[in-house]
Amino acid sequence: MGREPGPGAPPPLLIACALGIEQLALRSGDRAGAPGRFTVLRTGMGPDRARREVSRALGEEGWRDAAVIASGFCAGLAPGMHPGDLIVADETRGPDGTTPGTGTELLVKALVRAVPGRAVHTGPLTGSDHVVRGPERAALRATGAIAVDMESAATLRTAVSARTAAGLGGGPDVRPVAAVRVVVDAPEHELVRIGTVRGGISAFRVLRAVLPAFFEWHRSLLLPRR
User: Fold this and answer.
1) What's the rounded Cα separation, in Å, for the pair 66 and 5?
2) Cα–chain-centroid distance for residue 83?
């Protein structure tokens, strides 16, 4: 996880993703402008692995008060979405409940600047423990969700719970958390394998471009509150 912070260092940023290709995209992005320490954590696929790895990472010295972003690819649920579109969750939904995102509007504006020309959608991001296709995707859309993935809900819920368990305070916004995903397939553009067709390549390129927006979001959290 890197070196220990010095006295008075700002809280670090933990970016969690599931797949090696997601980690590669995020790590190969523009790292300039980071306001503090950050790391890209690969958790492995599925909510159980996300819970375990995020909990372990946030238990390490120097990372217990980290801001957390869940990122990577997702399946879009709304008609008209395309591979490479961005999803910013105003909340994530999972079996353990709903977790609101922090600074959603700021993230949207930062992503528009970082990835010009790409659509940015905001709304509920729902969790699943398996790949969702066909009629099941339509059923999730009927709940109001705009996208689905397997790790974001578990990541954000674990991040908030881990801070409370560590005695660092309770409440919905004691740790800044966010979920930003790139659509890799959508109702009219279902993919079989990531990276083997044009949609997967497009999503990979967009994911490589999001770090400056993440850093802008992180930087805003370090400003004094009025």
Assistant:
1) 12
2) 17
Task: Please say whether the dihedral angle defined by the alpha carbons of residues 115, 217, 4 and 49, taken in this order, is positive or negative.
Answer: negative
Q: What is the structure's pLDDT at 200?
A: 74
Q: What is the pTM of this model?
A: 0.88
Q: Which two tokens stand for residue 73?
A: 């690819």
Residue 103 Rama label (left phi>0; alpha psi -120 to 50; beta): left
Give the pLDDT confidence of 51-65 residue by residue, as tens digits: 999 999 999 999 999
Residue type, 113: R
CA distance 197 to 105: 32
Rounded distance, CA 32 to CA 219, Å?
13
> Which residues lie below 8 Å from residue 72, measured CB to CB, with a gap of 6+?
17, 18, 19, 22, 149, 151, 181, 182, 207
